[in-house]
Design brief:
385 residues; Rossmann fold; 2 domains; alpha/beta; six-stranded parallel beta sheet
Length: 385
């Protein structure tokens, strides 16, 4: 492209290392043509200190700015700093991600005179479907500001259908652009799986069922531990690895101890070496109760793991039931356990479904595809060919 670069500001509640949406944004940015686009990343509030991405983003040549928004959802003090910096930066497009950014971003853009706003819907959050007073107020705010948004981009067809149904947004304003992940670490085996197992005290001969995610109530890991107890009673060689950190950690550790599973379950906390961790697993289990199109499942498929997931959000668009794993209706605990059991007992099935999942992941979740679709959307919003 000849001429001035298209300036795009990505606005997100918090940008931090290892965060799914943050990693997705970086995968997209790295795949764009730097001769056509110039990107900045703005965060409404600071990341966890140990996961601060500032040095990484500066090295990548990206402007990074953190705003003084408090933890409270209703903190309108952030609007004026946002407006002021939008006027100074004068981006061609403000690209918002997640609920807080999708609410405050269009308002600030309107006040700053920025006409091109895109909001990415990354999950079917509770506010979309809950009947409570606050969720209804949030849905109303979304509808009132929808006229200031040029396009909505849903990360899955399930997310698109949900916001059409529950937010009443026009289908003509919403496109589906599937999430993507950096596939480079999964091009070929790293050979780190055995070392990870040894470091975590997992048996080299055992079958490891694993999951990666924030230890939050919505991720439903307490149910996975209960289902694992039944699985372990049938298959003594099975082990469980839950990688991540969060508010449910202590409760999960207590549950594991109460069930007498301390010798079979590992909770190593947050880890940055996820490709190596996935190599240490044989099966990926994802019991989350609400998702858009989760990075954890995409990376597990890219690593060649068969997946068992609940049929929420875009899980059923990623995992093909019976071909790359099993997709189970929420509430069907016996079905989830049965899916894990089939995979534990049949190594050839694990290999077959895992290989099919890897091929699917490299086809669907390629960041070059993601960047191409967003580039087309950016040009369309700006009426550029």
């Amino acid at each position: 492209m000849v001429g001035k670069k298209i300036k795009i500001v990505h606005l997100i509640p918090s940008f931090w290392t290892g965060h799914g949406p943050s990693s997705g944004i970086m995968a997209q940015i790295r795949s764009h043509d730097p001769r056509e686009f110039a990107f900045s990343i703005w965060s409404l509030y600071a990341p966890p200190p140990a996961l601060d991405p500032e040095s990484l983003l500066r090295e990548a040549g990206l402007e990074y700015r953190v705003f003084p928004m408090g933890r409270s959802f209703l903190d309108f003090r952030v609007l004026w700093p946002l407006v002021r910096h939008l006027r100074r930066k004068a981006p061609d497009i403000l690209h918002c991600h997640l609920l807080r950014a999708n609410l405050y971003g269009p308002i600030a853009a309107r006040l700053a005179g920025i006409k091109a706003v895109i909001c990415t819907i990354r999950g079917i959050d509770e506010y979309v479907t809950s009947p409570g007073l606050v969720p209804r107020a949030v849905r109303l705010a979304e509808r009132l500001t929808a006229g200031w948004v040029a396009r909505y981009a849903a990360v899955s067809e399930a997310a698109r259908r949900a916001i059409i149904t529950h937010l009443g947004l026009s289908p003509l304003k919403i496109v589906t652009i599937l999430n993507a992940v950096d596939l480079a670490p999964f091009q070929r085996p790293r050979g780190d799986g055995a070392a990870v197992r040894a470091a975590l005290g997992l048996s080299p001969e055992g079958i490891v069922v694993g999951s990666v995610g924030n230890l939050l109530p919505l991720k439903n890991y307490d149910s996975l531990v209960l289902w694992f107890r039944e699985l372990a009673a049938l298959c003594p060689q099975v082990q469980l690895l839950l990688v991540g950190e969060g508010q449910e950690r202590q409760a999960l550790e207590s549950l594991v101890a109460e069930l007498g599973l301390a010798d079979k379950v590992r909770l190593p906390g947050f880890r940055e070496d996820i490709p190596a961790v996935l190599e240490a697993m044989d099966i990926f289990a994802f019991p989350s109760l609400s998702e858009g199109l989760p990075r954890a499942v995409m990376e597990a498929m890219a690593a060649g793991l068969p997946c068992v997931a609940l049929d929420v959000g875009g899980n059923g668009e990623a995992v093909v039931d019976g071909e790359t794993g099993y997709v189970v209706s929420p509430g069907d605990a016996p079905g989830f356990t049965a899916g894990l059991l089939r995979l534990v007992q049949d190594p050839e099935l694990r290999k077959k479904l895992g290989e099919a999942g890897k091929k699917r992941a490299f086809k669907l979740f390629n960041p070059k595809r993601l960047a191409a679709q967003y580039a087309e959307l950016y040009r369309a919003v700006l009426n550029r060919s």
